[in-house]
Amino acid sequence: MLNINRLRILREVAERGTIAAAAEALYLTPPAVSHQLAVLEREVGVPLLERTPRSVRLNEAGRRLVDRSEVILAECEAAVADAQATAATVSGTVRLSVFQTAAQSMALPALVALRHDHPDLVVLTSDLEPARAVRALKAGRLDIALSSEWDFVPVPADPGIDRHDMFAEPVMALLPAGHPLAGGPVHLRDLLGEDWCIAGETASSRQAIHRVARAAGFEPRVVFESNYFRAIGSAVEAGLGVGITPRMTDLRGLDLAIVPLVEPTLERRVYAAVRKGSGGAPAIRAVLDALAAAAERQGQV
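Above: the chain sequence. Below: its structure as tokens.
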């Protein structure tokens, strides 16, 4: 019989391209990954990989097995969820990852409600960047990963993930308090010649601004980088430049102008990702419902 953990390892090697990258995503060592792949080849009865001194890649048999692995893994998740649905109470442990701006406004109220409604349920929460969180989710290290998607930077569909949309929030412009456009709303094109305080190059918010700017023939001058929106707000308050932030960012206490963006408007969509087939498990379903209720109470749906 096939071992589903070894199927996950084979899938990660196919996605990452190397044993080292797969090992990092799975929180394993490269020798451990190589050993599990060798065991999987013995279970299947045919070679699955083409090995060279410097690389490894899937052969035709490996590719066919990976193609079927998504269905197999999803069915296993669904089977467990279906069995757990017979329990009289919601219990067990759910591992949840959150990102900075969603933690205070959405995740914390949900966790408080869950303690009251389901005292036998334990939710272990960690703060992970969405890209790392999805890798950990697919590797089985997490059960739910809160993530987000920005306009102009769509997240590709993943056959191993089910997405539960929570809410969409507008993206606001941040301007120094004395800026000529501080009365807002502002057209994004009117800010493209400004100095910018913005997230790092791999962040979706940065990519969204760059794509809009390049379409208008500009290249934003970035003078301050941070992946923490409150730090960006502090830099704008200090007069270093302008920035953007999702509406639910906590900027209390900062003296700056927070104004709507128009033409184009920008939105960030927050969603919860789970492994395909697992969303019907009572514990996971309870956490998803609590997150959705918290978002609704915030008036963000």
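The CA atoms of residues 90 and 283 lie 6 Å apart.
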